[in-house]
Write a structure and sequence with these properties.
This is Protein MIX23. Belongs to the MIX23 family. It holds the Pfam family MIX23. 22% of the residues are buried. Helices cover 63% and strands 8% of the residues. The protein has five helices and two strands; from the N terminus they run E-E-H-H-H-H-H. Helix 4 packs antiparallel against helix 5.
Length: 167
């Protein structure tokens, strides 16, 4: 779906939008790719499960004396499924925003070729290029967060649950 975005009284840019991008994570979460700070805050909230994984493991996995009272295998499986869902949702959100912003950059480059002296256009192009770089750096942050969570999960749950080899 194309969206027309008015950047100035004389400049209109056609941006790309994935029709399915509004529902890419938890149903209650929506993403604003245009405002990077807001998007980053949304990602921070979505990373809560990763930030609290040690506490979650400590409070849900039984110690040796309580092993019979809690199904550690099921607990670990549920936690793993939640982690994978969160990781997938964030990855999709970041990649969707990168694709949308890259499309805007392409449109702006096309406009710049037609009107190389338009300073508003050049300024907007630089802004969008910077946003693409920031979004790409979020993919690196996501990789570190995911690796840390999986490492902690494996340290505590390896005896109780073996995740599928796809990860």
């Amino acid at each position: 779906m194309a969206i027309l975005k008015n950047l100035s009284p004389t400049l209109t840019v056609l941006s790309c939008k994935d029709p399915g991008s509004s529902n890419m994570a938890a149903p209650s979460t929506s993403f604003n790719c245009e405002d990077f700070s807001e998007f980053q805050e949304t990602l921070r909230l979505m990373r809560t499960i990763d930030d609290r994984i040690i506490h979650k493991l400590n409070t849900t996995l039984p110690t040796v004396s309580f092993e019979g009272k809690v199904d550690a295998t099921e607990t670990c499986k549920q936690l793993y499924d939640s982690l994978m869902e969160a990781h997938s949702s964030r990855d999709k959100a970041i990649k969707t925003c990168i694709a949308q912003t890259s499309c805007v950059v392409s449109q702006l480059r096309g406009e710049r070729e037609k009107d190389a002296d338009n300073l508003t256009l050049i300024k907007q192009l630089r802004k969008e290029q910077t946003k693409v770089k920031l979004l790409q750096s979020e993919l690196n942050v996501e990789e570190v967060v995911n690796d840390r969570s999986i490492k902690v999960f494996n340290e505590r749950c390896r005896v109780h649950y073996k995740p599928p080899k796809s990860q």
